[in-house]
Amino acid sequence: METNSQSYKNALLTQVKDAYGRLLYTYTVHLKQARIYQVRNSVIKWLQIILSALSTCGLIAIIITNSRLVSILSGICTTILLVISTYSKDINLDNQINEHCTFAHRLWIIKERYITLLTDFPVMSPDQISNARNELQLATAKEYAEEPPTSKKSYKKAQKALKKEEEQYFAIDELNQILPPHLRSK
Fold this sequence. Notes:
Shape: elongated
Structural class: mainly alpha
Order of helices and strands: HHHHHH
Largest sheet: none
């Protein structure tokens, strides 16, 4: 009976680790998606400022010089500004950034609960583990029902961050440096 119980506990451990990994990926993908939108939003706003300045300077230059070339360039800048402003109004990047950040923050607490479960795993009975796993699955499913869409680019960035850059983790020496002296491992 003990062997069956231990093999069941090992199967539970594998399942919980797998669920944690999927959740961590989703969490990181949404952080990356928010960052992609933040960069895009910043570029658009700077373009709007620059094109607005060029259009205004162009209009002043037309009044002063009455140059046809300046008139054409000012018209082109104004048209591009109109297109960019219409695009940014329709996609509402600020709202999309907020959606992805909010979703990631809601996943964060579930992610931390998985880590706690994995930490407490050795001292828990299979029934306790099973119950905790089921609660986490329900909490995760509830959040996933409201998940905003992500892009392939954000997934690739998350994959790189997690696999190559170990973004969500600290090396022991690194962790020791940021802990208060009384909590550092020797």
